Amino acid sequence: MKIIITESQHQKILLEQSAPVKIGCHDYEKINTLCSTLVFPKVEADKLIAKYKPIADKNALEEVNSLSQELMSMGGEDGKKIAEKFSSSINNSKTEIVKILSQYYSQAVYASCGLGPQVNISQIILQVCGVIYSNFIKAWNENWFYRNIANAAIDQSNIKQVQSYGKEILDTVINKISGMVDSYYMFSASDIVFDRVSQMEKTTPKCSSVIVIQDKGCNPLPKNKWYNPNQKYKNIGFATPSASVNYDSLAKKTYSPKLVAFLNTLV
């Protein structure tokens, strides 16, 4: 059946379709959905990278140094040498560790701006731990005197205890590295993007598809006080996946068996 509408009915339909969505106090989250139409400018992302990357690298270096010092107080009697060697390997690896983190910093900022994919943090942690573990083995093997002392101190009577200390120290290293890597991209990339977006959205064009009719306290606004919120930037998010992801599991599964196998060679 063919339906015929009048010109006035047609105009009314067009007007209703183009009318802004009225937003009350319980619908504020809809503003982001309805008004997120702007693409964050790459030139602004590049400015953030140039300004904050050196700061992020400096903070990461300080965290690596702190971890190296912290390990010196771990290990107990049977694990002291393991802790010392990990401390030494981290100290010797610090430049390379920061270099690894730094090479993904731009990607992290772009991801937070909605301009690229998220950073694969598990793979970065695995890469950093690989550098540390390689230098640990190198530090242990390069001095035959200390290796012979370890050989003399480790036998079948205490190897299980030594392995237990070793895995505890390695877990501490991986946990600390995981937290450091996560914070490097979260606080040094995502957070600065969120802050910049909040500043920029104060001066963006008005969003004509939405009109706010209540304040945040659910009080009705007089009609002459209704307003269109500012347009939002779309796809703004985090540099890395959800923090609920167990980032360090891959590194632990990879290097814990390697460490146990290595310690067995000292018996």
Topology:
Layout lengths: L6 H12 L2 E3 L5 H7 E3 L3 H30 L4 H28 L1 H8 L8 H21 L2 H10 L5 H42 L9 E3 L19 E2 L15 H16 L3
Parallel strand pairs: 1-3, 2-4
Describe the protein.
The chain is mostly helical. The protein has one domain. Helix content is 65%, strand content 4%. The protein has nine helices and four strands; from the N terminus they run H-E-H-E-H-H-H-H-H-H-E-E-H. It has a two-stranded parallel sheet. A two-stranded parallel ribbon has the order 2-4.
Which spans of ≥5 residues are poorly predicted at pLDDT below 50? 9-17
Q: How are strands sequenced across the largest beta sheet?
A: 1-3
H/E topology pattern: HEHEHHHHHHEEH
Structural class: mainly alpha
Find the count of extended strands (DSSP E, 2+ residues).
4
Strand residue content: under 5%
N- to C-terminal distance? 91 Å
Helix content bin:
55-70%
| Quaternary structure of the protein | single chain
What would you report as the Rg, rounded to the nearest angstrom? 28 Å
- Average pLDDT over all residues: 86
- Summarize the biggest pleated sheet: 2 strands, parallel
Concise summary:
The protein is mainly α and 267 residues long. It is 65% helix and 4% strand. The model is unreliable at 9-17 (pLDDT under 50).
Supply the key terms.
267 residues; mainly alpha; two-stranded parallel ribbon
